[in-house]
Specification:
There is one protein chain. The chain is α/β, with parallel strands linked by helices and 248 residues long. It is built from eight helices and seven strands. It has helices at 4-16, 29-40, 52-61, 106-127, 153-172, 189-195, 199-207, 218-230, and strands at residues 20-24, 44-49, 66-69, 88-91, 136-140, 177-183, 238-241. Helix 2 crosses helix 8.
Length: 248
């Protein structure tokens, strides 16, 4: 008798076998976890990152992928050169910049919006000739859209804009499907830079306040992303994977 996990993996394999998946932000964290899971079920992976070394290491870690060096804040028009078809596009790149508004420069504000909104839109535009009616695009918003931090106004604005964007593009680019995943607290390398040595203590304290009583793993978000890619009846949606963090 097959377990539900085995049945899920079989379904995923049927959905992604031989398909081209492009992951912008695929060298670490959520992007890398998604790449690894998609590779395991037969997808062809194209990883995009601005860091060549991390890109090489990620490609090796998942057993091979096409590597594309590009910065999501300013994606080149030729970012997808050499790809003949994109079945699924995931955009999960972008930093978190937390600072009081009075201390932020115009460049600081532009960096966040370029990484979180303008750059992804330009990447989607560049991908349009390679996308097709059955393709999907998955963007990444975040919990700050519904629970903003006191010093995270520009991040909250950018990720909230992403959620509006997927609803608009789902109509504009129909029948192509456009969705977003909204992660809550997830233990990724991004938090290492934000919290340093205090990370583990902060995560433990945060976990105790969440209804799920745990912190997300990149693999948890990867499963949600692959669901959005595979389900042909989901579009214009924001899937919250946050341990119930929006409600506390």
């Amino acid at each position: 008798m097959q377990t539900s996990t085995t049945q899920t993996r079989i379904t995923e394999a049927q959905s992604f076998q031989g398909q081209n998946i492009v992951i912008i932000g695929g060298s670490s964290g959520i992007g890398l976890a998604t790449a690894r899971r998609a590779k395991d079920v037969g997808a062809n992976l194209f990883l995009v990152s601005r860091n060549p070394q991390r890109l090489r290491e990620a490609a090796e870690a998942i057993g091979g992928a096409v590597q594309i060096v590009s910065d999501i804040a300013a994606p080149q028009l030729a970012i997808f050169a050499g790809i003949d078809r994109i079945d699924h596009l995931l955009i999960t790149a972008g930093t978190v910049h937390l600072q009081p508004l009075k201390d932020q420069s115009e460049a600081d504000l532009s960096k966040v919006t370029n990484e979180r909104l303008i750059g992804p839109l330009l990447a989607i535009k560049a991908a349009l000739p390679l996308l097709h009616a059955a393709s999907s695009v998955t963007m990444t918003s975040g919990q700050f859209a519904s629970r903003p931090a006191a010093i995270g106004a520009i991040v909250a604005a950018a990720v909230a804009a992403v959620e509006s964007t997927v609803r608009a593009l789902a109509i504009e680019l129909s029948p192509m499907r456009i969705n977003a995943v909204s992660p809550g607290w997830v233990d990724t390398p991004l938090l290492d830079g934000l919290m340093g040595e205090a990370k583990q203590q902060v995560l433990e304290q945060t976990a105790s306040t969440l209804p799920s009583r745990n912190i997300g793993r990149p693999e948890d978000i990867a499963k949600a992303i692959l669901f959005l890619m595979a389900n042909r009846f989901v579009t214009g949606e924001v899937l919250h994977v946050d341990g119930g963090g929006r409600w506390v």
